[in-house]
Amino acid sequence: MLNGFLNDLGVKPTTGLGGAIWYADALRAGKKFFYSGLYPYAASGHQGVKGGAYSEEGARFVFDKEKLEAANSAYKYEYFNGTSVVEKTATVSPDGTILYIDGKKAAEIVNYAPNKLDANEITYNIKLEEVNPTHAPRSGDAPTEAAKALVGKYVPIKLVADVCYKDACAAGSLLAAAHTATIKEYDAFIIEPLTVTTGETENFTDATVGGSTIDVKGAFTYVSWNADESGKKYIVANTTGLQKALWEFYEVVPGEWMTDQIKSNLKLVNGNLVPTDGVTNGPLPSNTKVVYNQADETLTYNNYSGTPVNWDYKLFIPVKFGYKWKTFTLTFEVDVKKNSGTPAQR
């Protein structure tokens, strides 16, 4: 989270967040006193100072408890409680570094930690909760549902700094909170690493002998959040090379056509099912069925009733997608065309 912060010399501070923070003294006009004693002295005359009451860890990031726990909080998260997805708000630990959803740990802010690639650089990160963060792909370990609820969402955080810290605060006559200043407030976006792009699907034809089959191989594609040098997002697929490596890294599962939950745009009008604009949760005609063949990636529509439909109508077929950090559903619209041999209505 320190990326994007520059110190007074226009350089990203590597020794800690305190290197990006300064304060003024009303009795010493024109001087900037830097929070960190590690801040290099500048020829401009600005002074870095580190008093006995300061600690590098006193400059830190915290979750914005006031915004998250407000009675009318705008920050809501879709949480799977084991049965269904419900909307929840979050709570925050007393020190501001741990975020909970439904009482379950979702994320933790790790302040003042050495960069794993360069121990000389201090980093600050939001870490989503996993029981076993170093697990091998498809080992059965997974993030908590609370952590998943944050993916693709905004989380309010604050950059704060203590004028005193720990023992020095306790020794003072005022409460520690009175010595903590908020430097900056903003929203952190938890990147959604994979999304799905949708393509075109063919139409079914009613009353077809043997059923009407359509190919759905191109109906959707998983894509990664990042792109190559030409701006094209990386495709994630169970194929070979990088596409396969990303498929395994994110523990992607194939899309599941939920043919047992299909709805239509049909509405019962005077005893007849009639295609109706705006209707998306209507029934299917009697004795019609859609099945998915996973091996061929095809859908087959059958009308077993012996009676053809009299109008073109629409099916709304939900598809369940999933990978390590998220499970979600998209609904695909497929037209059913009446058979050209259907007798005209009188």
How would you describe what is shown here?
The chain has 346 residues and is mainly beta. Among the domains are: 103 residues, no CATH class; 110 residues, Immunoglobulin-like (Sandwich), CATH 2.60.40. Helices cover 6% and strands 39% of the residues. Strands 14, 18, 19, 24 and 25 form a 5-stranded mixed beta sheet that branches. The chain has a 4-stranded antiparallel beta sheet with strand order 7-8-9-10. Strands 1-2-3 form a 3-stranded mixed beta sheet, with no helix packed on it. The longest helix is centred in the C-terminal third of the chain and has 9 residues. The chain is elongated. The mean pLDDT is 87.
Number of strands: 25
Poorly predicted regions: none
Element string (H = helix, E = strand): EEEEHEEEEEEHEHEEEEEEHEEEEEEEE
Output the CATH class name of one domain.
Mainly Beta
Question: Judging from the principal axes of the Cα atoms, what is the shape?
Answer: elongated
